[in-house]
Write a structure and sequence with these properties.
Number of helices: 2
Radius of gyration: 12 Å
CATH architecture: 2-Layer Sandwich
Structural class: alpha+beta
Helix content: 25-40%
Largest sheet: 4 strands, mixed
Number of strands: 4
């Protein structure tokens, strides 16, 4: 999947997250989370899993998390990727 434009998905409500994706020359992932100390490594694993499954090798992926569960993280990333792809 190639990211060709900006895309976003999610909300800033508690137990949800906002995902922003945009084109870039390399793959960059930025994670901001209220639970980064406890679950930052698990969030990153889920992000990497979804990006690999969708064949994303370049793009800027920014997550602003408010304690979302793994299925919500997966769904929001996939939605943002679909909105940003050709």
């Amino acid at each position: 999947m190639k990211i060709v434009k900006k895309g976003m998905a999610g909300t800033m409500q508690s137990s949800d997250l906002m995902v922003f994706v945009e084109p870039a020359d390399s793959l960059q992932v930025e994670i901001e989370s209220t639970v980064i100390r406890q679950f930052g490594h698990l969030i990153r694993v889920k992000v990497d899993e979804v990006l690999a499954r969708n064949g994303v090798s370049a793009g800027l992926i920014r997550l602003t998390d408010r304690g979302a569960l793994d299925y919500a993280i997966e769904a929001r990333i996939e939605t943002a990727l679909q909105r940003a792809s050709a």
